[in-house]
Design the sequence.
């Protein structure tokens, strides 16, 4: 370690624990077992780790920074980030961003925000386990955005997938569709919930709920679209807008017209759906409202004593040119 001062991450790697646990031990606050404390302290001694008093001094002052972690793979996250800036400004706070990308883990994204002195974390579609999220929540308020199964110590703001799928199926059946397929999101955040909601809604109406494996990207939609053509439905509900665009492209390659031959409905009402040459019908989660709610939860936790809360927002449907009456 010559020439380089040992860091919390160095201690974490040496002890085989997370950086958040090392921080808990070094600050001597609850959240780590006696065995973990002993292991971390031994690793720190062996490395010659010394807490950075300058960083501790900086952290003692208010930064009024809210840290937001997001994935570069999801365009919808960017829309939430845009809205979060406005929401934070209204509450007298600023936003610091940290991306989850190829080669950059969610833990690293969150740790870098804490290193910047962020007073709370807003994590968009976090994939960490509940215990990992709880470790961060032991340090600062944490708000999970778009995912609600995060335990009792973490706030969450999410959209009602069951209500969203009800709106999608209600719209399509009102146009006369009965043969409706769902291209699912696999194990992506909200994928299992939307898949279950689709099946429940179709079963409630006495319709066959056909599900085709998909995913969150255009490539996933392309593959699913080719599979759908083996037994073409009259309408498709895709996991998200990007997936819907892939399905649409596969149909276009096959000479099928949308919506004359088959209707397509997306989810998220992202900027792609709203493009003038796309005009994709979609279930809107309303990014500005979700972002504002997440910012409000983070600030309320910082400025009050309210416990962690799980908020669920109701989406709405935006009908555009990709859905139409069932083919005659």
Sequence:
């Amino acid at each position: 370690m010559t020439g380089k001062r040992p860091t919390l991450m160095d201690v974490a790697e040496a002890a085989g624990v997370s950086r958040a646990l090392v921080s808990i031990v070094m600050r001597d606050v609850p959240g780590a077992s006696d065995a973990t404390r002993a292991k971390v302290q031994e690793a720190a001694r062996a490395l010659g780790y010394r807490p950075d008093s300058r960083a501790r001094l900086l952290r003692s002052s208010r930064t009024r920074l809210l840290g937001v972690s997001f994935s570069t793979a999801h365009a919808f996250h960017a829309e939430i980030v845009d809205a979060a800036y406005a929401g934070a400004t209204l509450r007298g706070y600023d936003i610091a961003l940290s991306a989850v990308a190829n080669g950059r883990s969610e833990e690293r994204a969150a740790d870098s925000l804490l290193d910047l002195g962020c007073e709370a974390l807003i994590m968009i579609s976090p994939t960490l386990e509940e215990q990992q999220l709880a470790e961060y929540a032991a340090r600062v308020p944490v708000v999970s955005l778009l995912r609600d199964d995060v335990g009792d110590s973490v706030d969450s703001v999410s959209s009602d997938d069951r209500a969203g799928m009800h709106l999608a199926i209600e719209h399509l059946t009102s146009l006369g569709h009965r043969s409706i397929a769902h291209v699912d999101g696999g194990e992506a955040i909200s994928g299992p919930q939307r898949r279950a909601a689709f099946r429940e809604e179709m079963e409630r109406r006495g319709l066959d709920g056909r599900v085709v494996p998909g995913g969150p990207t255009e490539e996933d939609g392309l593959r699913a679209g080719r599979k759908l053509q083996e037994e073409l439905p009259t309408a498709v509900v895709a996991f998200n807008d990007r997936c819907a665009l892939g399905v649409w492209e596969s149909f276009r390659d096959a000479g099928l017209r949308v919506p004359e031959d088959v209707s397509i409905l997306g989810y998220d009402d992202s900027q792609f759906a709203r493009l003038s040459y796309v005009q994709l019908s979609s279930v809107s989660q309303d990014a500005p409202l979700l972002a504002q709610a997440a910012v409000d939860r983070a600030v309320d936790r910082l400025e009050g004593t309210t416990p962690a809360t799980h908020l669920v927002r109701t989406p709405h449907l935006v009908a555009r040119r990709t859905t139409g009456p069932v083919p005659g």
Summary: The two ends are 74 Å apart (CA to CA).
